[in-house]
Amino acid sequence: EVQLVESGGDLVQPGGSLRLSCAASGFTFTSHIISWVRQAPGRGLEWVANMRQDGGDKYYVDSVKGRFTISRDNAKNSLYLQMNSLRAEDTAVYYCAREENGFDVWGQGTMVTVSP
Amino acid sequence: QSVLTQPPSVSAAPGQKVTISCSGSSSNIGSNYVFWYQQFPGTSPKRLIYANNKRPSGVPDRFSGSKSGTSATLGITGLQTGDEADYYCGTWDNSLSAGVFGGGTKVTVL
Questions:
Q1: How far separated are the first and last CA of chain B, in Å rounded?
Q2: Fewer CB atoms inside 10 A, N or C side of chain B?
Q3: pLDDT of residue A54
Q4: Which of B36, B47, B106 would you mutate first to test chain A, the one with the most A CBs within 10 A?
Q5: Which of A15, A24, A72 has its CA nearest to residue A49?
Q6: Taking CB atoms and an 8 Å cutoff, what residues of chain A touch B46?
Q7: Residue A55 has pLDDT above 90, yes or no
Q8: DSSP string of B22-57?
Q9: Interface test with B, best of A46, A47, A99 (most B CBs within 10 A)
Q10: Average pLDDT for residues B11-37, to the nearest whole number?
């Protein structure tokens, strides 16, 4: 079964850091770009970041540039999102999603709450 | 403020048709494929339409997509109560070098 499973979400104080993980299974991880997409409570979807399969080019939404870093470990079939200098507006459910003619597979999401 | 513009809500009676518009620009919809996603409360989004107008296996043909210039449209015919959900359009923006979504449209079956 093709599956993405996120983990690492937590309650963190403003200015803090958190590392999210996305574990992939059931498909050839190295053949796909995987993105991070987030959704603040009661709000719409916001694309956050992705990177090439070979770990090359990385792309970010402007609001997280310089604070978030996307990475992947192809040997572990895993994608990561290192989030630093967290702000209240980063509070959201974070999904990882496989790119295959759009986002064809989504994880269940992991909740990140930034609050004092 | 989303890069792609969708109406916040649309509604119609069971069996009727609704259309959801998605407006963008030459750097996003005008240059790339458009995708549509369906999301029920508390669940992950599901891909509904890819490459402007193609349906993945398992998606009923009541759902259709189209694109013209810098705008795209999702159509739902034979509306059912089970179609009540949020719908999002998405694509890539070449100027931003980023993925973009519309703000989402809530479909209500009257």
A1: 28
A2: N
A3: 82
A4: B47
A5: A72
A6: 106
A7: no
A8: EE--TTTTTTS--EEEEE-TTS--EEEEBTTTBPPT
A9: A47
A10: 98
Q: Are A47 and B90 in contact (CB under 8 A)?
A: yes
Calpha distance A24→A3 (Å, rounded)? 6
* Partner A contacted by B100 (CB < 8 A): yes
To the nearest whole number, what is the mean pLDDT of chain B? 97
DSSP 3-state of A63: helix
Please give the pLDDT value at position A56. 84
Q: Which one-letter amino acid corresponds to residue A26?
A: G
Give the C-alpha separation, B19 to B34, whole Å: 15
Q: Copy the structure tokens of residue B41.
A: 């409360």
pLDDT over 90 (residue B63)? yes
Residue A83, strand partner residues: A18, A68
Q: What's the pLDDT tens digit per position in B26-55? A: 999 999 999 999 999 999 999 999 999 999
Q: Is A58 within 8 Å of chain B by CB? A: no
